[in-house]
Design a protein that fits this description.
- The chain is α/β, with parallel strands linked by helices and 461 residues long.
- It is 47% helix and 18% strand.
- The chain has 16 helices and 14 strands.
- The protein has a six-stranded mixed β-sheet. The protein has a six-stranded mixed β-sheet with strand order 8-9-7-10-12-14, sandwiched between helices.
- Helix 8 runs antiparallel to helix 14 and helix 14 packs antiparallel against helix 15.
- The longest helix is centred in the middle third of the chain and has 27 residues.
- The two termini are 20 Å apart.
């Protein structure tokens, strides 16, 4: 596919503010012609030309100009970079002059969008550029670079190619309705489907690890009032972010803090204490806490050791943990055991006994004294996918959802085949699976999705 816009676009490609060097990028069929109006020298391909940048016989700046002729450029079009001094006034002046000469300011992500539309990179690679820029750790940057280099795309494309070959066999059987199931059996479609389902599941698992590494996970701190949720938030973030008092119900709204533990970005959400209240504002906070339970990737259930011991439940067993999960699920949405961690705070008041069978799902801490906080941080990082060496590429939630849909379509096709429903139904589910894989890399992507994806990019990318 090719970009439909052929006008000249320009933007500052370096971060805003003051800097030693500032880069302005132009892309479009007249990039060289317009740039030469400013630099006053004949630009040669991929060579750095030192020059003064002039307009109306006035020197605006001096620096380096480089011309990358299309299609051998990032966007696939003629691209010129003007590398001058990184002062905002200077750069804005140059932008204004370029716009007077016929360029227009680029939309967010428009350079990458043109690269995608001109076939220079696929949609996953384009998104990986933004992930690489936004990476909060070395591991996240490595994973994003792998996606940019096509690691994830190749895996998706390989699945799609195998699915396409299987679809050919299925479509051929449709022409023989009385013998279609027998033809599918001879073509070993059942075996091919089973293998595709297994491989899609493995790719989905890898994508989920890549998503956690790239975009992080949301962790909700929930529990009754005064168990120390806000103190935990402050201790984990290293800042006095939340107000901490002895008065129950101090936290009345969601308080969100972004942190990085072992290279994993985490968003901690402190919630209002779960209880019935006559206070209208506190009731709203409790309702928001319940909604956060539904939306969080992980739920940290916080309890007070003092309350636990005084109630006579001094032992944390599998049954106790299961009951705690069930009680919390009744307040929000069903919570999977793997997505929850029990944190018993205030162990400076006493230490309950934790059965060995649930030790991996329970953390004993004192946010006040700092005891157990290192172990808690490690547990949260593991939940966020701290085994970063296994995250071979970065991914996004839309990739995970698309792979989940692909797996569901393939399983539906398998069920139709097992019921001997006919080749048409099997073919329809396989078609949907194939189209969904195409949406990941952008071979089949609605325009509105493209707009949503590229609008999140910075202006000069």
């Amino acid at each position: 596919m090719a970009a439909t816009d052929t006008d000249l676009i320009c933007a500052i490609a370096t971060p805003p503010g003051e800097g030693g060097v500032g880069i302005i990028r132009l892309s479009g069929p007249s990039a060289k012609k317009v740039a030469q109006t400013l630099v006053g020298v004949e630009l040669k391909p991929r060579r750095a030309h030192y020059s003064r940048f002039m307009a109306n016989e006035e020197i605006l700046d001096d620096g380096v100009a480089i011309w990358f002729p299309g299609p051998n450029s990032f966007t696939g079009e003629d691209v010129v970079e003007l590398q001058g001094h990184g002062g905002p006034v200077i750069q804005q002046t140059l932008l204004n002059i370029l716009c007077e000469l016929g360029a227009r300011l680029a939309r967010p992500g428009e350079f990458s969008e043109r690269a995608f539309l001109n076939g220079k990179l696929d949609l996953v690679q384009a998104e990986a550029i933004a992930d690489l820029i936004a990476a909060k750790s070395t591991a996240a940057a490595k994973a994003a670079l792998s996606s940019f280099q096509g690691v994830f795309s190749k895996k998706v494309t390989a699945l799609a190619d195998r699915l396409k070959r299987m679809r050919v066999e299925i479509e051929a059987a449709i022409d023989f309705p009385e013998e279609d199931i027998e033809i599918l059996e001879q073509a070993q479609v059942a075996q091919s489907l089973a293998t595709l389902i297994d491989d899609t599941a493995r790719l989905l698992e890898q994508a989920e690890r890549g998503r956690k590494l790239s975009q992080g996970i949301t962790i909700a701190l929930v529990g009754e009032p005064n168990v120390g949720k806000s103190s935990l938030l402050n201790a984990l973030s290293g800042e006095e972010t939340a107000i901490v008092t002895e008065i129950p119900g101090t936290t009345r709204d969601l308080l969100k803090v972004d942190i990085v533990i072992d290279g994993i970005p985490l968003r901690l959400v402190d919630t209002a204490g779960l209880r019935d209240s006559d206070d209208a504002v506190e009731r709203i906070g409790v309702q928001r806490a319940r909604e956060q339970i539904k939306n969080a990737d992980m739920v940290v259930m916080v309890m007070s050791a003092g309350t636990l011991l005084s109630s006579g439940a001094g032992e944390v067993s599998h049954a106790f943990l299961r009951q705690t999960l069930d009680d919390l699920s009744g307040l929000g949405a069903p919570i999977a055991a793997d997505d929850a961690l029990l944190v018993i705070n205030k162990i400076d008041l006493g230490v309950p006994v934790v059965n060995q069978e649930v030790e991996h799902r329970v953390c004993l801490v004192s946010a006040k004294e700092g005891d157990g906080m290192t172990a808690l941080a490690s547990a949260l990082a593991r939940a966020g996918g701290a085994n970063s060496e296994h995250a071979g590429f970065s991914a996004r939630i839309r990739h995970v959802q698309a792979l989940q849909k692909t797996a569901a379509c393939l399983k539906a096709a398998q069920a139709s085949l097992n019921r001997r429903d006919g080749a048409e139904l099997v073919a329809e589910d396989c078609l949907l699976a194939h189209q969904t894989l195409g949406e990941i890399v952008g071979t089949l992507t609605p325009d509105e999705l493209l707009g949503e994806i590229f609008s999140t990019f910075c202006i000069g990318k």
